[in-house]
Design brief:
single chain, alpha/beta, 11 strands
């Protein structure tokens, strides 16, 4: 089923176009940043409903290059209502006496379960079930384990009060796991910054800490901060990593690790999505603020936000397009990673949440499910193409850096040893695979940095290595 043919645009497209172009960034970038923020705020348990099952909603990690004025401004504006909501929650919860929370959750129940007030505000489903199991009511056939799957409203509220944060910002990569202990459901949207000060050996350590937590991890809640039986809990982080060009240029070797886990918004592409101005086209900020509030409130109420298509035909179209998109991802030259593969799901889910805010005067402009399907995949395919092209560029840059490092060591050894055979030169290294050095030696000879004597020995050539680095090159696939 073709979902990429031109057609009349919908109100979300129109408002995104107007908003993005006004700010100075690509509409695709706006859609991606909004999806990343909303899915990150939704936290664990949010799903995308289809008639044949629910797709778990994974956070959409982004890598956003700073220095692009429009994109930077747009991101800060999209983050503004999130920062405000997180600040208000922290301020409100800051006035709560923690000792009283501990007493409410554990003190009364642990000291004497008989004191539990059935139906009262401090009801504990688990403890009531335990009492019924020990002293079953006459004729009761209720399964004790069945209650384990029923959320306890009191515990959920206490969790939201004890761990209120939904946003982390300005945190060092190595501190992320500890900071998650203060986040609601041990999950948060994190706004991180990759700076050019990441020098070896710190750089690898910090990036490893980031990639590990993006892959998912468990955190151990200290005994003094939990009254539960099991202290180990899964934690989840969705991240928007802000980086400048200097920082990006300094991590060519590690870049593939990040590109496999996040989508790179590498440049502003001012392509417009069929967007004549109509009533409601300028209301994107209003829709978006409403979506942020709905997602945050639903999460902190202990519920899991689930949205989906009401139109079965649109759901079938989405699934067919998603299967095709997945095959496209698997057929690309570079492994694009989970963020790029899950992009259509995140885009469609966030647009469905946005459309729920279109009430009152905007209700007539709410996009049909089929329009959201089309918009999601058109934007996803454009973003995927840019992301994949960047991956290829980064791989070439990393290979070139590897080649230059090997070339520098070869030139240094030839200078020290004088005319030397290729075999003797390779044997002077710990790694002695000729396939690693042969293409680099050939490039150095072609660049006149090294030359062959009449006897076939290698010696320094007329061109200094330092002057030749800008145009030395070997095929990417030949550098290991």
């Amino acid at each position: 089923m073709n979902t990429t043919t031109p057609r009349e645009s919908n109100a979300i497209e129109q408002s995104v176009n107007h908003w993005g172009i006004t700010i100075g960034t690509a509409p695709d970038n706006v859609l991606a940043m909004a999806a990343s923020i909303l899915t990150g705020l939704a936290g664990p348990g949010a799903t995308f409903r289809l008639p044949w099952g629910c797709i778990p909603l994974d956070g959409l990690n982004l890598l956003v290059q700073e220095g692009q004025g429009g994109t930077t401004r747009a991101l800060d504006m999209l983050l503004s209502p999130v920062r405000q909501a997180n600040l208000l929650v922290l301020q409100t919860m800051g006035g709560v006496n923690r000792k009283m929370l501990d007493f409410q959750q554990a003190g009364t129940f642990a000291s004497n379960p008989a004191k539990v007030n059935p139906g009262g505000p401090n009801e504990s489903t688990a403890l009531l079930t335990l009492q019924k199991t020990i002293k079953p009511e006459s004729g009761s056939h209720e399964s004790p384990a069945a209650a384990d799957l029923v959320p306890d409203p009191g515990i959920l509220r206490l969790e939201a009060m004890r761990r209120p944060a939904i946003l982390l910002e300005g945190v060092r990569f190595t501190d992320l796991k500890n900071r998650l202990l203060g986040c609601h459901r041990l999950s948060a949207l994190a706004i991180l910054r990759l700076t050019p000060t990441l020098e070896d050996p710190d750089k690898k350590k910090l990036l490893t800490a980031l990639t590990e937590i993006l892959d998912g991890c468990e955190v151990a809640i200290p005994p003094d901060k939990t009254h539960g039986i099991e202290p180990h809990h899964p934690a989840r982080l969705s991240a928007i990593v802000r980086l400048d060009s200097k920082a990006w240029d300094g991590i060519h070797e590690e870049a593939p690790q990040l590109l496999e886990r996040g989508l790179l918004l590498a440049q502003d592409n001012m392509q417009v999505m069929h967007a004549p101005k109509v009533e409601g086209a300028t209301a994107y900020g209003e829709f978006y603020r409403g979506a942020v509030e709905e997602v945050a409130i639903t999460r902190r109420d202990g519920q899991f936000l689930q949205v989906g298509f009401d139109d079965p035909a649109a759901a079938a179209s989405f699934q067919e397009s998603l299967n095709s998109y997945t095959r496209t991802c698997h057929g690309l030259a570079h492994e694009v990673g989970a963020a790029a593969r899950n992009l259509p799901v995140a885009l469609a889910w966030s647009m469905l949440v946005l459309s729920r805010q279109m009430t009152g005067e905007y209700a007539a402009h709410r996009p049909a499910d089929a329009q959201i399907v089309t918009t999601s995949f058109q934007a996803a395919n454009r973003l995927l193409a840019r992301h994949h092209a960047t991956m290829g560029q980064m791989e070439m840059a990393a290979s070139r850096e590897s080649m230059l490092a090997i070339a520098g060591r070869l030139v240094f050894k030839v200078r020290g040893k004088g005319p030397v055979s290729e075999r003797q030169l390779v044997r002077s290294f710990t790694q002695q695979k000729l396939s690693i050095y042969r293409p680099v030696i050939d490039a150095l000879v072609n660049g006149q940095v090294l030359e062959l004597t009449p006897e076939g020995l290698l010696q320094t050539g007329p061109r200094p290595f330092e002057d030749a680095q800008s145009d030395l090159w070997v095929p990417t696939a030949m550098v290991v």
